[in-house]
Fold each of these.
Amino acid sequence: MADEGDKSEKLITPKENPTLNSEERQSSAHLEGDRAGQLLEQGIVQQQTGNFARAIDSLQQARDFYHHLQDNLAEATAWYYLGLAYYALGDYPQTIESARSSLSLAQSRSEPRPIGQVFSLLGNAYRHLDDYDKAIAFQKKSLKIFLDLKDRAGAMAALNNLGLAYKARGQHEDAISCQKRALMFARSLDDRQTAGQILKNLGNTYYALGNYREAIAYYEQRLELARELEEDRVSLQILRNLGNASYTLGDYRQAIAYAQKRLALARQLADSRSEEQSLGSLGVAYDAIGDYEQAIKYYEQRLNLARELGDRRVEKQAIGSLRTACYALGDYAKIARYQGEE
């Protein structure tokens, strides 16, 4: 059993030493401030690079140092990044607790920008908890602060997040209005990463509305940007969305074109799951135009890949699709063969 003393060494808890004279205390406070700054910077980097458990440990230590030093603004920053780390882990109640602690400290200093950031974090956390009224209220507060500050980047983020909250509540037109305003800010800032996220959000919102042509228009813009930024994984996802939207519109030839591009990219990236999905999409689209021979070709490739992956569920789906396509062709010998393989 591990020594309990070992556990206490993992967390440094700053405590005032009453035996120090005033000069020594000043020096000690300076050292604590340096250490707190190092821990805060370290925690932020860890949070931003996805090392959330270590980020939480570093940020908690920084928070405790700053609390001891009575540096409210720095402590608020530590609480905020703790909230971001918990948010990334999907721990939304803990996100809210951290964000509210940050908010209380930031408000005590009347610092609008940190307050706006915390409002946005709270709004996102409440959205994930399906509390859309609070989510929208906090995002509106965040937006007002950043607009008053003429902070385009902050306003852009708040508008995008507000759009997501409206979409989650089913207010799609309000969501689109916010996302279009956010896109204008992103383009004015030449922030292509955020512009790409917003374009995808707009495509998703129009798709949810059943406006597939508008969805395709925004997905196409997102695909072009993904290619410019060499975001192959994003391209795989957007090509799938484009294929689904085209298929839903009954534009099967276009759906085939998107699925073929996705298949080629999936093979280039050795992404077996995306390859399997693309093969299925191609089979379904060729089925829809009555080209059963081509449909069978892609269903057979999907079946073989499913067996390589050991995916019994997809294997059964592919066999079912093959039997249906063979029946349409009148190829009863193949039907019997596939029935025997189930």
Amino acid sequence: MLKDEDAISVVLSVVLLLGVLVTVLGIVHVSYIPEWRKSAEADHMDDILEDLADLKSGIDLVAAVSPDTSCTVSQKMRLGGGSIPVISPQKSGGTLRTDPSLPDLYITADNYTVAYAFPDLGSIELEVDNLYALDRIYVYENGALILKEINRSIMVLSPGITLQKFNNGTKTLTIQVINMSLESESVAGSGIEEVYFTYTSSTTHHAGTTSNVTLTLTSEYLDAWKAFFTDRAKNAGFNATEFNVTTSQNVELDIYGDVLLNVVEVDGDARIRPVIEAIEPT
């Protein structure tokens, strides 16, 4: 009889321990894992931002040097991440894609006697599909790195477009156009992909004084570009009578009066390749 009672006691103890364990795991899963995952996914998005920032830095460097021959920069892109070993091993996913069309950029000045058109500049996007944190889209277009979250977009890293105003009142606008020849590509998953940018040429289209410059840009991220143009003009010391920024189907920057305008176009090809294909055989 005592042995039976001891056996029953052991079984009850095991059941109680299992119940406590299940309860603790449930509390951890409900209360702690979402926050841990949000933190891990935030770290992964920082990694993605670092990858795209390195790609932009490489392209900026090649554009600044403007070599006589073609050269290639490459950057690995970590599509998936945010996992927690054992506890929550599933990675968040990502989609890396290229758009050969937008943005478009148009420049006119001096009552349209000066006019340049740069359609289909192309963009590289990485969309992050998180499990707990907010989904995000990172975009590289015309030298700018843009972040889109919910219904807003902000410029994380600026393009090669600068505005200056000297003490004598001279206004300058320098525009570096990054024109990427792209195919429409899309890769989804949680692995590592690689983006290649091959520089082909650099052309100076304009370098001199003109008047009443209008820069018109068509993009899916107009609020980021509008904020960029407005902040740059104000920080350069332009007053309200010297510039205006408006948005409708595009964003338009108008600079009034005489302007020292510099327009340089950088051309290159961009492609997505799996990392396994990018490794040289030994």
Amino acid sequence: MRSAAALLLVVLAASAAPAQESVVAFFAPLEVKEDARRDVTVLFGSLTVGGRVDGRVYVVGGTCTLKPGAVVRDLFILFGTLRKEEGAVVTGTETLIAPMGMEGQRLPSQIALALFWLFLAFILSAFLPAQMATGQVVLRDRPLLAASVGLAALVIFFLLFTLFFFMLQLVVGYPLLLSLLAFFFLAKAYGMVVVFWTVGALLVRRWGPVPCLFAGWFAVTLLRAVPYAGAVAGWLATLAALGVVLVQMSFRFRAHQSLFAPPRSAP
């Protein structure tokens, strides 16, 4: 949640920046060797900084490398990676949002984020038990469908994010972008709890609901912490989470029901 709030603040700050004071690279690498007094934005490409950037640095869907001696005021990375070499400095805010939100964060932050996911899992399960059970059935019986829909949703999200990002100078730009991000984070939160339930049911089905949810959360969190394999697991969990939400929404839409409405009883 803290990452989501930081993301909204960064987007609002970006919308206030004049367009002529930004350097933007799209699907291409960018290297900043000397000092720059502009905002630097890289969408789906790599950024290498070897000098000083007095503006903000945004990297979406790419890799940001800070060389020794690099100085950046504010750094924001969405669905990317950070390679910060010794001697590189970020003087202001450093925000990194990954599929499960753990890459690049120190152990205390990882533990706090993991506990937040556990708390969120119990809250959503308490208020939406029927929806969680239905989502678990969808993910268990149709995993390929959920993953495929999640992949398509993620591609569409990136395309819309890029479009709305370039519309930030218009009045309608940042409300559209904020709405897109809000939907993404809410869908991911709901779907990730369904993933916890599904994994837990595979591990300790007979132990009851609370151990099942806890086991699923613990297994996903533990796997997420494994180097390299954890990154893959995070992306797969994100695809499954987004997919199961959209599949459930499509089923409910065809039945003329809201996703959060209680299931209709059989006549």
